[in-house]
C-alpha cells in the first residue's frame, strides 16, 4: 500500500512540473546511463533477498522430505535385521540337526548352483562312507 501511495505522489509531482523542467532533465548528459545504472542497482537489490527467500523455501520443503526418507530407511534397516536373525536361527537349527527325522541331510554352503556331476560325486562319497 505504501508503494502505491509513493507511486501516486511521484506521478502527481511529475505532472505538476512544467515543460521547461522536463526538457532540461531530458537534455542533460548521461541521463539514460544514470537511469540504467539505477535500474540495475534496484534490480540487484531486489534479487538478493529473493535468492535467500528461495533457499529458505527449498529448505522448508526439503527437511520434512528428508526426515520421512530417513525414517523409512531406518524402518527397512530394522526389519531386515529382525528378518536375518530369525533366518539365521532357522539355519542354525538345520545345521545343528535339531530335527531328528532319521534322514541324513547334506547342507551345501555357497551361493552357486551345483552341477549334476557334483551332486553324483556327493552321493557316491556318502555311500562309501556308509559302507565303511
Describe the structure.
With 132 residues, the chain is an all-alpha fold. It has one domain. 80% of the residues lie in helices and 0% in strands. The termini are far apart.
Question: How do the helices and strands line up, and which of them pair or pack?
Answer:
Elements: H1 2-16, H2 19-27, H3 31-96, H4 116-131
Characteristic terms for this protein:
single chain; 132 residues; mainly alpha
Task: Write a concise synopsis of the structure shown.
This protein is an all-alpha fold and 132 residues long.
Mean pLDDT score: 76
Q: How many β-strands, per DSSP?
A: 0
The radius of gyration over CA amounts to 42 Å
Terminus-to-terminus distance: 104 Å
Secondary-structure element order, N to C: HHHH
Low-confidence sequence ranges: none
Amino acid at each position: 500500500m505504501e508503494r502505491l501511495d509513493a507511486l501516486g505522489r511521484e506521478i502527481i509531482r511529475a505532472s505538476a512540473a512544467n515543460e521547461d523542467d522536463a526538457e532540461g532533465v531530458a537534455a542533460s548528459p548521461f541521463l539514460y546511463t544514470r537511469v540504467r545504472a539505477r535500474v540495475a542497482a534496484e534490480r540487484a537489490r531486489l534479487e538478493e533477498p529473493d535468492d535467500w527467500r528461495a533457499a529458505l523455501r527449498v529448505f522448508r520443503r526439503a527437511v520434512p522430505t528428508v526426515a520421512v526418507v530417513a525414517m523409512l530407511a531406518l524402518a527397512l534397516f530394522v526389519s531386515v535385521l529382525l528378518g536375518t536373525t530369525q533366518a539365521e536361527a532357522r539355519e542354525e537349527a538345520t545345521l545343528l540337526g535339531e530335527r531328528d527325522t532319521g534322514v541324513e541331510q547334506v547342507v551345501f554352503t555357497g551361493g552357486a548352483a551345483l552341477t549334476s556331476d557334483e551332486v553324483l560325486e556327493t552321493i557316491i562319497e556318502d555311500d562309501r562312507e556308509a559302507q565303511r
